[in-house]
Amino acid sequence: MNFSNIAYTLSGLWLILSGFFAVPLGFSVYYRDGLQLIFASQIVGLFLVGLLLRVLTRRPTELTIREGFLTVTLSWITLSLFGSIPFMVSGSIPNFTDAFFETMSGFTTTGATILTDIEALPKSLLVWRDMTQWLGGMGVIALAVAILPYLGVGGMQLFKAEVPGPIKDKISPRISETAKILWMVYLAFTVAEIVLLMLGGLSFFESLCTAFGTMATGGFSPRHASIAAYSTAYVHYVVTIFMFIAGVNFALHYWAFRGKLDRYVKNSEFCFFVLIVCIALGLVMGARLVNGEIFSEALFRSSLFQTVSIVTTTGFVTQDYEQWPFVTQIILLALMFIGGCTSSTGGGIKNVRVLVLFKEMGSELRKLFHPHGVFPVKIGDKPVPENVVSNVIVFIALYILIFFFGVLAMAGLGLDIDTSIGAVAATLGNVGPGIGAVGPIDNYSHLPILGKWILSFLMMTGRLEIFTVLVIFTRHFWD
Fold it and tell me: What is the pLDDT along the chain (479 residues), one digit of tens a residue?
């Protein structure tokens, strides 16, 4: 393990992060909120720290798999630490645990918040809060691989460790080109949503923050009431559409831009994702209608919005879904586990893993009747390698195991069972709002300090796809 390689790579990430603080600095200057010195100091200080570390270390010739895993994990921890400084120094979130929780929630696109009065924060700080989501959405490492040429030597190791999903689409032979293309598509959709929201009457500030939260499937909003603060159907539908887009494999969007729209219908995971959304929407609407609600456009819109918001792990809300029939909460809880597609900004287990699991279950059932038959698992027309199937099964088993122990830990800290389940499912799946005392109109401020650290760990573990984080705690990793 060459720690000099890791330190050099981290220094590059810190230099990149220092540059992004210029955005909230610009808003601070415009709104004259008194935080100009804080953001300016953050730019200079983080730049100097990164530059010093870069001078003291040597450029790596190659990154090993171990170094890649450790670099990715440390990058998300250190970026969250640096990102929390403006919250603490400004006094908006003076408590270190709360500031770190909020920032980790942002970078991991979880959207779980400890803030009880979001509008009270200076606008520049709210921009930074939403920008952490946007940077974490497509991946900080992916951004670094795209713009730092030297990471080409170990870019594949870093890219594999960060990008969600068991199957990474390599659009270009060069991993740096793949990362660059994905980020350009991501940026294009972000700009498009900003424009459409402004056409719907939102200010540039609100449009920017909402688009950051939408495309990252993060769910941070500049308004305490989330998207419910905007009562127009137009805004709700625009956000719904872009949440769905963000939950889809971005490689498919790239090919669509190239005129190959058939890639969507030919992609098994995309079709499965659409099927899950349609089934869940039908069940949610059906339960509400059976419960006595009258069918209307508003009922359809709110059901669609919450279904898409939860399955893409965005976490925006337009209604308090805990007031809906209890069965709808079970449906939404199940969607938190499924999550978005591979190579999207969504969290959760991912649709392709669920699809592979179903296919493997079908294959095993067929073997009961034909013991000597060979029934390979296929996604589309392509057989899935046995090692990938094994990886998927282990991943899902670990996910459920971590969820169980997480619920056990939170219950041990005194939380009721609903809140324990909701908090762990929402943070491990990078959703944000859960059920119980961390539901859509609640927050995480009342949780014990240890509980916040446990949930912060779960956010990072879920965002980095479990293996990247857990492997560091194994004896073999350090041999």
Answer: 778 878 888 888 899 899 999 999 999 999 999 999 999 999 999 999 999 988 888 776 677 778 888 888 899 999 999 999 999 999 999 999 999 999 999 999 999 999 999 999 999 999 999 999 999 888 766 766 665 555 544 555 555 655 555 555 556 556 667 778 888 999 999 999 999 999 999 999 999 999 999 999 999 999 999 999 998 999 999 999 999 999 999 989 999 999 999 999 999 999 999 999 999 999 999 999 999 999 999 999 999 999 999 999 999 999 999 999 999 999 999 999 999 998 888 889 999 999 999 999 988 888 888 887 777 888 877 888 888 888 899 999 999 999 999 999 999 999 999 999 999 999 999 999 999 999 999 999 999 999 999 999 999 999 988 888 888 888 888 87
Q: How far apart are CA 418 and CA 307, in angstroms?
A: 20
pTM (2 d.p.): 0.92
Residue 144's nearest CA partner among 129, 127, 161 is: 161
How many other C-beta atoms are found inside a 10 Å radius of the C-beta of residue 326?
10
Which of 289, 240, 278, 248 minimizes the C-alpha distance to 265? 248
DSSP class of residue 413 equals T
Backbone angles phi, psi at 116, to 5 degrees: -105, -15
H helix intervals, 217-325? 233-246, 250-257, 262-266, 268-290, 297-311
